[in-house]
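Q: How do we represent a protein-ligand complex in a form that can be generated token by token?
A: Start from the inputs.
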Amino acid sequence: MSSPVPHPVGVRTLGEFVFCPRAGLLAARREADEEPEYDEPRLDFMPQYSLAAVEEQLAVWLSRFGRWSAGGAVLIVAGVTSVVLGVKAVAAISAVALFVLGRFWVRELAVVMRLADVRRQALQASPKEPPADASSATPVTWWELLKAGFDSVRLQEPLRDEQTGLVGSPWRVLRKGSLRIPVIKLESAHFDSGRFWIYPQHEIRLAAYARLLEACERGESPYGVVLFGDRFEGVAVPVGKELREAVETTLPRFREALRKSATEAPPPEPPDPALCAGCPLGFPKAATEAERRSVVKKIHGVQGNDGKLYHSECGDGFAWRPPHRRARQKGLLPPGE
Ligand code: SF4
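Then emit the structure tokens for the protein with iron/sulfur cluster bound:
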């Protein structure tokens, strides 16, 4: 008789649980378990992660830049001609139009230069990949990995492993031969001048994705890659025995916490309140009118020193006041906390 398929657990949710058990339970209540992009539109275009896409964008923006330049040339000719002919009104209109157009022109130029710079980085990168047996984190760049022959794939469907119940889709998978390298992204604040901040909740995500890829694609995932925001610099993190064991031991702990949460008290508050001080789930937001009135989703609101009612996802979820630093500023915590 085959053993029952374990309850599915999202990889990001598992990472949240490692960060804080309450965060894991909140993540399990949400439907989506997707890897975030952390890409912000820069100068009106989204960063691209393939040379072909960069070149396509560059062609589009060069053509726009050409049109703005042609418009500027027409206005200059019109302005100069009207000055020579003494038609002051036309000269004034041309000058104003040129000023407005100049601002757009500068912006288009900045985009073209940025894309040209990314294209240069992609073309000049040397093939380089981290050693499969590395024992410590190795700096990498996206373009070096692609030059080394990796194909970057965005999965259309999440990976599922019936044996562990893990489900998830890394931001990208790098494939080369039998290698299947999961890639995740963190906010750009996790990287500064070559220094990086990768925590256990991120490492376990990489290890869980490695496990999923090995189970579903029958490949090898000796490391995972972390990129930061819209940078092309990243870090390869070895997925060794210890991390793999952490996945095995955390999964049953998480399922047990889920089971208990249905009938028993929630997991205790983190022993160190500093964890909540910057946690986005404890960030207090002013309640909207609809949130105040909702009978379906009750909020755990607390009145701030500005008279507004504040609540947070974690506060609502566990009917308490997370000691977020903003909660302190807004006077939402009991005196002495
Ligand atoms: S606010 Fe605190 S308790 Fe709530 S999820 Fe964040 S760290 Fe955990």
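The mean pLDDT is 89. DSSP finds eleven helices and 14 strands in the chain.
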